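Morning. Coffee machine broken again, so started the prediction first thing and wrote up yesterday's gels while waiting. Chain of 154 residues, entered below exactly as on the submission form.
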Amino acid sequence: MKHIVTINLKCKIKANQAWDQIRDFSTPHKYISFIQNTIVLGRPSGGVGSTRRVFTKYNYMDETVTNWEEGSSFTVKLHRNKQAPFPFSAATFRYQIRSINKTDCELIGIFTYELLFGIIGIILNHLFLGIIIRFNIRRVIMGLKMYLNQSIII
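Came back before lunch.
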């Protein structure tokens, strides 16, 4: 069963300025608190097929771009050794920017996932995994908002 978590936040930055920042495929460790470093693997760094490796304190995960809409969004498939990270059987994250007006935009994070373990996975998602996942996706988008707000000051 497919699950979708969507987090939207308004940000006081022009959409094109926000895009210029998030399209830099090497920066997620600057706005995601639980990521310590990022390495872009191969070329190109941006666009379909681009892959980056993100490192946490104890592990790493690869993110490969499966969809790229210049100026507005990209989607990454989360994997390690061609498999979704545990406890997922599939997982993608979509970064999206939508213009609200001349000075503001909306940051949108869409995490789509399927869990292992069939009905047990569905129950675990309902009981607590879904809450943890939603909390972490909110952290990502809130961190991105803070990062973007700092970038316009610098």
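The chain has two helices and seven strands. Going to sketch it on the whiteboard this afternoon.
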